[in-house]
Amino acid sequence: MFLRASLNQIIHCLRRATRGVFFHPRICLGRRLLGRVAGFGLIVLLATLAGCSFKTPQSTMDAHGLVARDQLDLFLITVWVSLFIFITVGGTMAVVVWKFRERPGDENKPMPSQGHGNPMIEISLITASIALLVIIAVPTLKAIFLTDALPTNQPYWKPSLLGNWYTDAGGQLTDESSKDEPLTIEVDGKQWWWSFTYTQFGITTANEFYIPAGKVVQFKLRSDNVIHSFWVPKIAGKVDCIPGRANWMWMMADDGKVASDGYDHGPIGADKYENGLYYGQCAQYCGEAHAFMLFRTRVVSDKDFVAWVKHSQQKVPAPAAGGDWAKFSIATKGNETTPPDKTMLATAEQRGAALFVGRASCMMCHTIDGSNATGTIGPNLSHVASRTSIVAGFLDNLDNEGKAIDPVRQRDNFYNWISHPYDFKPGNLMWYPLPGATSGGLRDIVKQNINNKTPFTDQDWHDIAAFLMTLK
Questions:
Q1: Which end is more exposed in the chain, N or C (fewer Cβ atoms within 10 Å of the end residue's Cβ)?
Q2: What is the dihedral sign for C-alpha 216, 221, 227, 230?
Q3: Residue 426 domain-assigned?
Q4: Mean of the per-residue pLDDT values for the chain?
Q5: C-alpha span between 20 and 235 (Å, rounded)
Q6: Is 153 a member of any domain?
Q7: Helix or strand or coil: residue 421?
Q8: CA 14/CA 101 separation, integer angstroms
Q9: Phi, psi torsion values for 344, nearest 5 degrees
């Protein structure tokens, strides 16, 4: 009675405030026009929504990992509960407003009788609110507990330990203590790229990492600059990389969604991620090039993962001097009495390698395993030509069909990035000096000709690109 009396009182006040408004001829004409506009707007909205899809490369609505699916389930529960509340409350209000709307002749109706509440209705509403909160709280706590610790009590934990699958897939563990550990990857958030280190296998790569399908993988997250956020939307949630703090997370990609044609291939387009290639990015604003801080995750079979590990552990030989980088570096630089050995500079790849470890100073910032290039400021370039992208996932190396790396596109990407890095990533440290430094970076090397007697030419950039193409 109290609820009905209160509604009647509200409706009575609305009637007095809008008396005669809805029945004026001009107002009725306006309502008809408004109805037509609203109908047209609804059609446009539906047409727009028809173009939407949950099957996008970074859609959390298309989960392909255990953690991501658990979080999606929680999100959908929250959506359905919220939708139920919206329909119940909004529907009740719509029915009441329509049923008790003002009609001709209602102007002189008396004020409805007043009440002082209905304890049963109030208790029922409070109980229903608590029940709805519990429905959301239980799966929320479950999701928190799932990611709060490694799932050592789950049936998929033991099969994920390296000793239970890596050797069976043809691999060999150099450290026996790691056989009782899951695959562990150390993630370092840089400005603005990602470094991935497999300490159990002595591998460091950049902006693209590999994990076996159906196995728990632990990630240790770090940053030595600002806060970043590591996020692979389709496989797991996001966790921050915070300077001075050791964060971590784990993920397990779905089994059966692996690349079918080897670790150096992957499909492209809207379905690219469904064949083992997943997109990730930094989800925390971290500076000028935050939007370009992307990475890629390759989910492969156990055997393909072992093959990738073995390939990545191989050292990169020099393009001449019998593969000896020390001899190659000395022979191609020359000195005051001995000119450079031109027999070691006969090809574009050899000239590019000489520039890389010589006057271009690339070795000061980048590492190539097996060479005298041991810089750590920039990404590790060992086997960079086997990656599906460069520039932190921004420049795609795959062909239009996505079945393989396109060598022409890849070479163009290398050349464009080396010769014009400022066009692709603002503030990048390959072009600009380090913070606090007065000089350095390719900008000053090219413009001021620092430490060089011969100016750089366009052919020099092409030669370096040709050398990078050999790092497969």
A1: N
A2: negative
A3: yes
A4: 82
A5: 59
A6: no
A7: helix
A8: 9
A9: -95, 5
Residues 170 and 298 in one domain: yes
Query: Does the pLDDT at position 17 exceed 60?
Result: no
Tokens 């509340």, residue located: 85
- What amino acid occupies position 352? G
Q: Using DSSP bridges, classify how beta strands 208-212 and 389-390 pair: parallel, antiparallel or unpaired.
A: unpaired
User: What's the structural domain count of the chain?
Assistant: 3
CATH number of domain containing 407: 1.10.760.10
Report how far apart, in Å, the C-alpha atoms of 22 and of each of 19, 31, 108, 313 are: 8, 9, 17, 79
- Give the relative orientation of helices 407-419 and 458-469 as an angle to the nearest 10 degrees: 130
Q: How confident is the model at residue 34 (pLDDT cuts 50, 70, 90)?
A: low
Asked if the structure places residue 410 within a domain, the reply is yes
3-state SS assignment for residue 313? coil
- Please tell me whether residue 301 adopts helix, strand or coil conformation: coil
Tokens at 26, concatenated:
């001009």
Domain's final residue, options 113, 148, 183: 148
Range of the domain at 352: 321-469
Residue 120, helix vs strand vs coil: helix
pTM score of the predicted model: 0.80
C-beta of residue 293 within 8 angstroms of C-beta of residue 317: no
